[in-house]
Design goal:
76 residues; alpha+beta; 3 helices; 2 strands; 14% strand; disordered N terminus
Length: 76
């Protein structure tokens, strides 16, 4: 899985919580695209909290959120 090089600053250790947050955000963006949904523009890996990886979902206009909610609802 590719992670934006400008955000990882050359980090490659899979146990690095900052890197793991970036990887998780990239994985979610890729999954959204694969599902035919718009990516969330503010989705990014955040700074670790208490040493744990974190993803910042941020703010987003409502339409991609409604699309995501409908997609999830149709599969549950």
């Amino acid at each position: 899985m590719a992670v934006e090089a400008d955000r990882t600053n050359g980090r490659t250790d899979a146990t690095d919580p900052l890197l793991r947050g970036e990887q998780a955000a990239a994985a979610l963006q890729a999954a959204l695209r694969k599902a035919g949904l718009r990516p969330l523009p503010s989705l990014k890996g955040g700074h670790p909290i208490l040493g744990r990886s974190f993803v910042d979902l941020g703010g987003c206009e409502t339409e991609p959120i409604f699309e995501l909610a409908e997609w999830i609802e149709s599969r549950t």
